[in-house]
Input
Amino acid sequence: MWKTNVKDFNDAIVSMVEGFNKDNAHNDATFFIFDNNALFNQVLNAINDAKDVPDQTKVYQKDTVFEICSAYADHGDSLAKIDQDDPSCKHSVNEYFWLSG
Output
């Protein structure tokens, strides 16, 4: 469901930008659209498939993308300790692709 929502949102952004400059009404403005969703999906799929992983994301492993150690799951305001290493966890908190609480 969320993939459909993200696609719908991205399509709405593209439509808005295209409509904004319809008939060259704002030809003094330049717009750039960068699809972060496509980039994140490419990185996550590469990690999940363990192939063609970009050098910049080799620190992330399948279990640091799709699973989170319970010691880090409820981090509250501890983002200042982004390099913390809990001995009960296999990885340091900064090795996780995504951490939300």
